[in-house]
Amino acid sequence: MTKKLSKLEDILYQTKNDKFTRILYTRVSSLEQKTDRQTVNSSSYDLVVEDKCSGSIPFFEREGGKKIKTLIDMGCKLELDVHAIDRIGRDLRDVLNVIHYFNTKGISICFVSQGLKTLDEKGEENPIAKMVYAILGVVAEMEKRNINERTREGIAIAKALGKYTGRKNGSKEDIHQFLSKPKNKKALDYVKKGYRNSEISKITGMSINTIVKIRKYGCAHA
User: Fold this and answer.
1) Does 29 participate in catalysis according to the annotation?
2) In which region does residue 173 sit, left (phi positive, over 0), alpha (psi from -120 to 50) or beta (all else)?
3) Is the pLDDT assigned to residue 87 strictly greater than 80?
C-alpha cells in the first residue's frame, strides 16, 4: 500500500529524488454526493485530490484544480489519473484546454474508465486518444444541454397545466420562508462552506441576484 502524502514537503522530496507523485483526481457535482465509485483503488496513489462542484466550472478555477496546478508550477513530477473525461469538465473547449496544458508540461492524463492516456511512452500526443476524448467531450456537452432542455420543457408543461406558478404580484415573503425553501437552503450551505456566488450559480442553476440575496439574509440571521 502506498503511503499517502499529506505534506507539500513530502511531494517535493519525491521530486528531488526523481520520483513521480501519483495523483488521483475525483469530482462530484454536489456536497451530498460521494466519490466512492471513483476512488476504489485510491490506496495505490500518493495523493487523492477531490472537488465537489459543477463540471461547468473550469478545471483550474476549482480548489482541486488549483492545487494540482500549484504542484506543477513548483516543478513537481506528477502522474495524473482521472476516473472519466467528464470529471475534468462538461465543456469541450475547457476539456481540450486542460489536456493541452498537461501535454505541454509533459504530463500524461490517464482516463481510467475509458482506458486512455493523452501521451504515449515517448511523451508524444496520442492521436487515437485525442480523437476519442474529443468525441466523448462532445457527448458530455450534449448531455448537459439535453438536461437543461428537458428542465425547461418540464417547467413549460407544468405551467401549461397550471401546476407551476410563481409568487403572486404584490405578495411578500418573509425572510424565514425565503431561506427555508429547499433550493435556497442548499445554496446557503454552499455559502457557509465558502463557495463563491458564481460557483453556487453554476452548481444550483440559480441566478446571481438570488444567491446575493440568500447570502445577505443568511449571514444576517446566522
Assistant:
1) yes
2) beta
3) yes
